[in-house]
Amino acid sequence: MAIVFVVTFFACEGNYKNIQKLNLKDEAPVAIGKNINLKYTDSGKLITNLIAPRLLDYSNFNFPYQEFPEGIILHFWNEKKEKTTITADYAIRYDATNMVDLRKNVVLVRSDSLILKAEQLYWDQKNQWVFTDLPYQIIFNDGSYNDGERFDSSEDFTTFLSRKNQGVQIIDKKETTNEK
Q1: Angle formed at CA 162 by CA 101 and CA 83, multiple of 5 degrees
Q2: Percentage of residues in the chain having pLDDT higher than 90
């Protein structure tokens, strides 16, 4: 009797998983969220706030991801409580790689007045790195700017490598000639 019960239990469990898969439409998300306002805190401090009109969760796929087809607004605060805001008309986040692909009218604004505009921006969350292969513009807090194509940068922009660019750089003559 025990053997029959065990065989039946495992047979039903396997069928249940197959039925679950059949209930999901082909290429359909496992969940849909509307009017998302997700807040992430660490030790009681607000670190990230994600706002999105719509979220499609494809965590049921072999390469799981979340899609934000109507855009996102992301607010970040660093340890100094400095705020960075990123907006994009479309975004997708891949779970396995911790990569975020931001597309269409991407704008990054930091509290120190740095503004980055691009049509696409990749954000490697694990390595704290941002990059693009498309045209971009950065406006710095001193009024200088950089128009270019393709760059790699640390997410705080302390390390910035541009492949092809032109712009206006404001230089303090006193600093270049060591005058006091």
Answers
A1: 55
A2: 24
Give tens-digit pLDDT for 140-151.
888 888 888 888
Q: Output the CA–CA distances (angstroms, integers) from residue 158 to 7, 130, 151, in the order listed.
A: 61, 12, 13
Look up residue 165 and give its two tokens. Answer: 């660019």
* Residue 161 CB neighbours (<10 A): 10
Strand 129-139, strand 83-88: pairing: unpaired
Listed by start position, the domains of the chain span 29-177
CATH of 29-177, one of 2.60.450.10, 1.20.1250.20, 2.20.28.10, 3.20.20.70: 2.60.450.10
In tens, the pLDDT along 12-61 reads 555 545 544 554 556 788 888 899 898 888 888 888 889 999 999 988 88
d(CA 151, CA 117): 12
Cα(157)–Cα(153) distance, rounded to whole angstroms?
Answer: 6
